[in-house]
Amino acid sequence: MATTNRRRTSTTDGVVDTIVHQPTGASVALHQLAPEAALQRLELTIVRRLEGFLHGDHRGLIPAVGTEASDARPYQPGLDDVRRMDWAVTARTTEPHVRDTIADRELEVWALLDATASMNWGTRTMTKRDLGIAGIATMGFLTQKMGDRFGGVIMRHDSVRRFPARSGRTALYALLRSMLTEPIVPDSSSPSMPLSEGIEHVLRVERRRGMRIVVSDFVTPGDLELDPAVPTEWERALRRLASRNQVVCMEIVDPAEINFPDMGEVLIADPETSAAQLVDTSDEQARVRMNAAAAAQRRRVAAAIRRSGAAHVQLRTDSDWVRDIARFVIGYRKVAPVLHNTGQVMNP
């Protein structure tokens, strides 16, 4: 969303300026996104509070068997899966044996960043795109301490850019720097790649199961549907991704999208389609209708994510994303086994 205010006053806030003008670069520097002092506090406060929740073999996130072969033992009828039968040992001993598996000790995490034009503005501390990168950084810091590999995919309006999964803090900083310096998608760029295609790209390219993070505002250009029962354009792809992986959806919103402020007559424009509408935000009834439509849109997004079997966390540009993610992960530990009960084999 971009706006042109007829009663606009001067401002020195470069982030707020993205409401009117297209940004030319990131609204936050890398050292502000992840300064060393803040990183140390993150590890001491959040990670220690999550001790046992995201550690080692990630026990408790999704209960299941592992993938690495272990010792063979006698087959127990009714308890063991015949698909794990070790036929070589069975032939040698003339007694049915199965091969146990051990848990994988590292997780492969991939983050999909929606970098389309609708993410290029904000009214608080940073743009929606940079808040999405901050959310990816926080999740990366929570996993890299345990040696997990972290990779990224940037979805532009017409293409995707893939960064291979690597472990370690240096690799994570390199990924974040690349995301921050990624060229801004110009306004009015005709979107030829919907979010569903970006999700399908992650599913199609990365065969190894693990955790997938989808960062977007989940707004589809031209979609005016508000009924939560009507599937979204990206819901089917997200369901496919969640059937094979543990998926966390980070919904990025700005407070001005939820509660429209009184700014007089404002030209509201869609940066992806160039559709525009002049709205008198000083009219209380107009603001009530706009807020109701925005709330219905958010409810539809939440319903689609819930039906897909993915976890959902909402990040706002006027809130502390580290605190919000910490609260989410602590609560997520309790509901993840039920949420991701898809019958798929993943880390215990």
UniProtKB/TrEMBL annotation:
SUPFAM superfamilies: vWA-like
Stretches assigned to the DUF58 domain: 71-299
Top-level taxon of origin: Bacteria
Protein name stated in the entry: Putative MoxR
